[in-house]
User: What shape does this take?
Amino acid sequence: MSDVARETGTTLDIKFNDQGLVPAIVQDATTGDVLMMGWMNQAALDQTLATRKATFYSRSRNKMWVKGEESGHIQEVVEARVDCDQDVVLLRCKSHGPACHVGYHTCFFRAATAEKAEGGLQIVEKRAFDPKKVYAK
Amino acid sequence: MSDVARETGTTLDIKFNDQGLVPAIVQDATTGDVLMMGWMNQAALDQTLATRKATFYSRSRNKMWVKGEESGHIQEVVEARVDCDQDVVLLRCKSHGPACHVGYHTCFFRAATAEKAEGGLQIVEKRAFDPKKVYAK
Assistant: This one.
């Protein structure tokens, strides 16, 4: 497919990277909060679109995983979008619990500050849960 | 740095990939819309934080670029965040014009539909400008 067709047409033709993966941003469809970013292979994308549950490919564990399969904090897909280049996916989701395994509502709970001497990051969200109680295994 | 320190601490320590790049999501700080995703190397990240203008590294052109340098549609950084793993950046920005070079407000102007026979994508945004008039060069 030509770049122009991919960028402006209506044929789904995801450009996976050389590892067969595409980044997928998860956004809360109600609040607009960006919750997390994961990676998908073709099978994870297909499963996400079929089941409407955000499903990713773990690069560290080398396997597919359904977000929330352990914690119960699933992300129910309201709408899946692709960007112009078709090399990024955006999932607009209904959240069933906080997104971050560290215990926050979103994975983006820290902001960069101008104070490099103090480490450069500042926590800007309240912790939503204790991961030790949710991930018991 | 240990994984735990990186995930929960307040020291900025971005985990760039094997090409020295990190994905950076751009979100409209006012509307919450996810506008685009680009890639940054260390120099682009440093320049973004110093100038507060979203700056990326183009993998196709092999050089840094300031978003909007040609179109004038710059993204003014209100807040920069990092995710738990510190391998994704989120820029909450004040937009100075549409984000997408194809002419839409966001790069995510198409949604995946259930109708694979019809190509699988549907345009869900109105075009904001004619790229031929903005990118004259």
User: Anything to note?
Assistant: Helices of chain A lie at 3-8, 42-51, 131-134. Chain A has a mean pLDDT of 94. The beta strands of chain A are 22-28, 34-40, 55-58, 63-66, 75-82, 89-95, 110-112, 121-123.
